[in-house]
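3.2 Worked example (two chains)
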Amino acid sequence: MVDVSAKAATVREAVATGRIVMEPGTLALALSGGGAKGDVRAVAEIAGVMAAKRTADLIPLCHPLPLDAAVVAVDPSPDGSGLSVTATTRTTGRTGVEMEALTAASVALLTLYDMLKAVDRGMTIEAVRLVRKTGGKSGDWVRA
């Protein structure tokens, strides 16, 4: 684990996104909230928040952080090919929350796959990435 004790505590935020591509019928089922396992979007959002809170348990040498906020949104992809996930995490601390945002997005996508795999095993999880981070010594960063 990297020693961050000399760093100043600042407000830090990170946003990560990803998407899951699926058949049109699978998307309709996901949007209807009537899947066999319940409302897949709501469950995936909760799973993402829970994952953000447990990131240090999953990734070796990752600092455990007290999160001030973790928000996960699952929405239809703009091109209609599936669902998009956006995870936003925030803390006031000495190290960033990028890993928490990426973990939240990843677990939300995995949850969507798990809940819909009975009707569409060919779904593809893709484009999981950090899109923005603010705060800290290195300052702000936005994906071009």
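3.2.1 Second chain
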Amino acid sequence: MSSGEGCPVVDSSVWRQPAAPRRPEQPDVLAQAEEFLDLFEKEHDLAGTLQSRRRWIRAEIEATGTYVHTTAELVFGARVAWRNSARCIGRLYWKSLRVRDFRAVRGSAAVAERCVDHLRAATNDGRVRPTISVFAADAPDRPGPRIWNEQLIRYAGYRTEDGGVLGDPRYLDFTETVQALGWRPPAERGAFDVLPLVIDSPEEGTRWFELPRSVVHEVELHHPELPWFAELGLRWHTVPAIANMTMVIGGVAYSAAPFNGWYMGTEIGARNLADHDRYAMLPEVARRMGLDTSAEQTLWKDRALVELNRAVLHSFDRAGATITDHHTESERFLTHVRREEKAGRGCPADWSWIVPPLSGSLTPVFHRYYDTEELWPNFVLDDDAARRGTRGGRVLAPLPAERPEDGLLSMFGLPLVVP
């Protein structure tokens, strides 16, 4: 959408992984397809006009064990999957999701190219656009592609000789796994080295691909009042593209469907940069601020956390990069809840994910209960995908290590993009 408004999709590396919904156990694909078509009919006011489509799907499932969504069904299903995502606070703009149909794409290299193009299109010169790229669905006789990375852009973590960590500790194992696959870090390692994409496909097995620097849009962090903050050398990328969740629509599972909105500032400032098992910047910020850290009751962590978050919001705003604060997004979410209620729909929400990790009780989302029923379509995270996202996984069909120039992916073909 031209205004750049979208969803600050919740970072899959924060909060509690067990909160992710699981794929429904219902084995009857036809029943799930019928349920989805009922929803499609109802919300498009088709009044039972899909009888021929139902017969076609029934025949297709009987013959192959699955079926293929039409473009309209895919677009509707992807948007409703976002609408039903109980962990996302930014669902007010679910209808604006740009759906890119790459179901005909085959091979790890081609999937990687489309992921690169996804980042380019979603970044939009800093005015981030909510976008999903949908690749081939799983079928009974053939799995679809899978992306190992939790997000399309993540930073490497390296163990240092003194027992510390350079970079993001969350991805220590993942970094070592991709090095075993042949990836080589920069000659001069840093705290924000972008990891390669790792993709499995039935055609090519497991391969890795360097992301071109041109599609990794980052913001260097400064503080509006503390000049020394820039000396910390902090920065963060602008597009939070979740890559390892499966989108389930009417019994059909799309295991590779990277999607993004934009960041809420606390995801970066209160989690990625502040958590003790991530970049753990609070002690250094507090030291530079001259705070008394001798006791918890001085609230030095709280004071440092506020300034770290101020720096994130200030820096993104100064760079012209889309971001939102937790107070504004909380108000927007309650607007979404009211709209869903007016439409006669439930609005599932996980309180522990919806309430921001900074000043939670100061936001209106804190002071109420929410529906917890899982609705479908939806995004799910299985145990294997969660493991691959942080630790890597088994190499299905090893190939020679990529040459550095192979990471500079040439773009070809045009996707089907539905506005």
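3.3 Remarks
The chain has a mean pLDDT of 89.
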